[in-house]
Design brief:
This protein has a four-stranded parallel beta sheet, with helices on both faces. A three-stranded mixed beta sheet has the order 1-2-9, with helices on both faces. A two-stranded antiparallel ribbon has the order 7-8. The protein is built from 13 helices and eleven strands. The model has no long low-confidence stretch (mean pLDDT 95). The longest helix has 21 residues. The protein folds into two domains: 179 residues, Rossmann fold (3-Layer(aba) Sandwich); 180 residues, Dehydroquinate synthase-like, alpha domain, CATH 1.20.1090. Helix 6 crosses helix 8 and helix 7 crosses helix 8. It is of the alpha/beta class and 381 residues long. Bound molecules: nicotinamide-adenine-dinucleotide.
Length: 381
């Protein structure tokens, strides 16, 4: 796919995810609400509509979607989900399935997910499993959800044994990303989403990475052209990767750059408020860069480029940046890596940077080298 510069691009910034009969479009513009409602009226006339929304976005978006659709449909119902990761639970999943059944939802009904990654993952898994699958569309309302979780069809809920352990690959019928809705996001959530954006530049597109070095501050300040271009470029990269490897048997694993380390840190913090997912990814990418340097792929200046950039945006880059960080050891961190669901019988696969803008999977990394990287990480806190 040709990476056109932002000035050559046309609005709305659509991206197509090519998956044969499961292909769909991602729409990116200031406010997609009217476009989303027109899509529903056009494709689901005469059907019943079930909106599953984060309660934090009811007044920002969900109420408007329901009000706009009500005149044209016999049944438009809204389920408001309490904000937060705790809602990605078996209990909430069961409650909403029960609600759908009581409301008379059928195989040809449509589910509309409105919220961040929590709602997208939860509502997506509900759509995948209710009556063995009903259509759903995504209206992502966080930066992280617009650039990552709403695209590609991974859906999941958490169980006591671990995060995202139950789920399905299930693609939405369309994704509608409004840049204006991000304006109410707390700065911390914007930064958390930014970590995933920078990840795409590092793993796939050096030109995009350089553009981010120059434009990240504008993006985080909600300048529309910067937000639109960044969301579009991330969706293009994810679409390109997912089109080649929908179920993560190879290439798609590159999207986990920094995530093996991030999951360890999130587990150590108990997935609580000390560390948002994107913050863990920010630190994880710095560790992946350190490991890549140790392996001789990139030099120390490249590794520093990554951490300096993230630091310049006040993102966490080291163990010491985690407030009230838990005590840990190299042994504990390595043990947690082996427990990660992405570890296989062959061991842990790391995503390393062969250069800035190109990642690759490596599974035969010596434990001594890993220990060196982790020792330095813990000692420098
Ligand atoms: N499926 C995937 O491919 C994938 C990829 C990455 C992450 N995830 C999942 O995504 C989840 C994290 O997503 P997230 O970071 O969007 O978290 P989130 O859904 O919890 O949203 C973050 C916070 O922002 C609030 N919020 C949402 N939209 C808002 C808005 N427009 N204005 C103000 N507040 C708003 C929410 O209420 C919440 O408090 C995790 O569960 C993670 O596992 C999934």
């Amino acid at each position: 796919m040709i990476n056109q510069q932002p000035s050559q691009r046309q609005t709305p910034y659509n991206v197509r995810v090519e998956l044969g009969p499961r292909s769909y479009d991602i729409y990116i513009e200031d406010d997609c609400t009217a476009r989303a409602c027109a899509f529903v009226r056009n494709d689901y006339a005469g059907k019943s509509i079930f909106v599953i929304a984060d309660q934090a976005v009811n007044s920002l978006c969900a109420d408007a979607v329901v009000a706009a659709l009500k005149p044209d449909f016999d049944k438009v119902e809204l389920y408001s989900v309490p904000s937060g990761e705790a809602s990605k639970s078996v209990d909430m999943y069961g409650d909403i399935l029960q609600w759908l059944a009581c409301q008379g939802a059928r195989r040809d009904s449509l589910i509309i997910a409105i919220g961040g990654g929590v709602i997208g993952d939860l509502a997506g898994f509900i759509a995948a499993s209710y009556m063995r699958g009903v259509d759903f569309i995504q209206i992502p309302t966080t930066l992280l959800a617009q650039v990552d979780s709403s695209v590609g069809g991974k859906t999941a809920i958490n169980i006591a044994a671990g995060k995202n352990l139950v789920g399905a690959f299930y693609q939405p019928k369309a994704v509608f990303c409004s840049s204006s809705i991000l304006k109410s996001l707390p700065t911390r959530e914007m930064r958390s989403g930014y970590a995933e954006i920078y990840k795409y530049g590092l793993l796939w597109d050096a030109d995009f990475m350089v553009w981010l070095h120059d434009n990240a501050a504008r993006l985080l300040a909600h300048e529309a052209d910067a937000v639109h271009y960044a969301v579009q470029r991330c969706c293009e990269i994810k679409a390109e990767i997912v089109a080649q490897d929908e179920r993560e048997s190879g290439l798609r694993a590159l999207l986990n750059l920094g995530h093996t380390f991030a999951h360890v840190l999130e587990t150590l913090c108990g997935y609580d408020d000390r560390l948002r997912h994107g913050e863990a990814v920010s630190i994880g990418m710095c560790l992946a860069a350190d490991l890549s340097e140790k392996l001789g792929f990139i030099d120390s200046e490249d590794a520093l480029t990554v951490s300096r950039h993230l630091k310049s945006l006040s993102m966490p880059t080291s163990y010491g940046d985690i407030a009230n960080r838990p005590k840990t050891s190299v042994d504990e961190m390595i043990a947690l890596m082996y427990r990660d669901k992405k570890a296989s019988a062959q061991g842990i696969t790391f995503i390393v940077l062969e250069r800035l803008g190109k990642a690759a999977c490596h599974s035969n990394i010596s434990e001594n080298m890993l220990r060196d990287v982790l020792e330095r990480f813990i000692e420098n806190a």
